[in-house]
Amino acid sequence: MTITRPAPDLRPARPARPAGSDAARLLELLDSRPPAHSLPGPCYTDPALHEADLSLVWQRQWLFVGTVAEVPEAGDFLTVDIGTASVVVLRDDDEQVRALRNVCRHRGSRLVTGSHGCVGNIVCGYHHWTYGTDGRLLHAPQLPPTTDTGALGLRPVHLREVAGLLFVCLADDPPADIEHVARVVAPYVAPHQLGRTKVAAQVDLVEDGNWKLTMENNRECYHCDGHPELRCTFFPTWGLSDDQVPERMRADHDRYLAALADLERRSDELGLPHGLVEDLVDRPLGFRVQREPLDGAGESFSPDGTRLVRRLLGDLPEARLGRLGLHTQPNAWFHFQADHVVTFAALPLAVDRTLVRTTWLVHEDAVEGVDYEVDELTATWRATNEQDAAFVAGTQSGVADPGYLPGPYSEAEEQVEAFVAWYDARVREAVAR
Ligand code: 3BY
Ligand code: FES
User: Fold this and answer.
1) Rounded to whole angstroms, what are the CA distances from 236 to 47, 162, 295?
2) What region holds the Rieske domain (predicted)?
């Protein structure tokens, strides 16, 4: 397993601030946005509005944080930081995956550090309070005998698994619609059997941009000329309806339509769900799912489209299954191929810095160096992510310029508008509450 991470950022986290007047200012800015235009500059650059995003959006919605493959054994954990909140996702001794606040119930020290690890118990490094993997306080030296230790377990965070994808919600009362999304999405994802995968590689990339720029960039292929490696297999007319396809892309699109029809027929024969379901704006856990063809051999994100991993996932009988594409609001996108899965989680670090955690999953029995090479497996998305990071950094710099004015979205950016409309709707709902 290859793990690549930037050097840790030791700057102190900014404390959360109440949204109050900042929320009112954010609403004014949203009201000022002309239809289907990018957001006003301060939405991407103002630290106080970033705090408002954290409290109005990130602390209320379901967020994708990882997969079951990252916590395969009892005691395995991953951590995610969401603003100043840190969450530990771990598999307990009964094999159940849980999420807990990464905050000691004694005097608040952080408990576990690092993005991944394995613990027997969770032991605070400060005064050694010791918690079980289920969060119960097991041992606390020299407490008065009357202390109710049963009430001093780690605070749970809501966690929901959807066919191996792990979502957490920091709210006391999370949006209930994840049940609907799970019912719709799980049958698409389930054949890839994430419970029988392992992490082949993971890369944490810090983009120098606001989280919304990271997401907006992901939601369109208008810029895909800037992704030569991805263009080998990713049809660039993604997101365009037939009548929106420009003449110069007609041949590509005709090839896409023919490949789609063939993939749909074969998916039906194999009993694999494939049809587009899109509900990106109205529901809290907005999503879009569809199985779509890949260009070339149609198997994977390699230069010629042939598979990158010899051992296929689950019990999938053939490699030419294109990619199952899944987007979830506000922070994730996924590509499930027959031979591997790539997951992407965007997490806000600061108003102008966003972590993009990319994880490549392969069959648990696939052998590195025999069934796959990590460099080849990861090449397309490592290159694409670096290119996207440059686009995002360039945009952050531009929207911070006093000369920036919001500009109109093209026909190829309907999903960007869907993302911004989703954001707008969630902010308004949260302020109204
Ligand atoms: O990764 C994705 O799903 C999106 C879709 C279009 C551009 N980007 C590659
Ligand atoms: Fe954790 Fe004291 S702060 S044991």
Assistant:
1) 35, 29, 10
2) 62-168
Chain centre distance of CA 376: 23
| Most ligand 2 atoms within 8 A of CB, residue of 88, 110, 127, 154 to mutate | 127
Strands 197-207 and 2-4: parallel
Q: In the predicted model, is pLDDT for residue 77 greater than 90?
A: yes
pLDDT digits (tens, 9 = 90+) for 166-204: 999 999 999 999 999 999 999 999 999 999 999 999 999
Cis peptide bond prior to 330, omega within 30° of 0: yes
**Single pTM value for the model:** 0.94
- For residue 131 and ligand 1, the question of a CB distance below 6 A is answered with no
**pLDDT tens string 414-433:** 999 999 999 999 999 999 98
Q: Contact 188/273 with Cβ under 8 angstroms?
A: yes
Alpha-carbon separation of residue 286 from 12, 36, 171, 280, 364 (angstroms)? 33, 18, 17, 4, 30
Which pLDDT belongs to residue 3? Answer: 58
Alpha carbon nearest to ligand 1 atom 1, residue? 218
Contact 281, 429 (CB under 8 A): no
Per-residue pLDDT tens digits for 253-310: 999 999 999 999 999 999 999 999 999 999 999 999 999 999 999 999 999 999 999 9
Residue 234 CA: nearest ligand 1 atom is: 9
Q: Ligand 1 mean position to 252 CA, how many Å?
A: 17
Short-list 56, 171, 169, 170, CA closest to 431: 56
pLDDT of residue 150: 97
Cα–Cα distance, 411 to 224 (Å, whole number): 14
| Share above pLDDT 70 across residues of the chain, in percent, rounded to a whole number | 95
Angle, CA 213 vertex, CA 174 and CA 4 arms, to 5°: 85
Ligand 1 atom with the shortest distance to the CA of 333: 3
Strands in 102-231 per DSSP E? 116-118, 122-123, 130-131, 137-139, 156-162, 165-169, 197-207
Q: Is 109 in the pocket of ligand 2 (CB under 6 A)?
A: yes
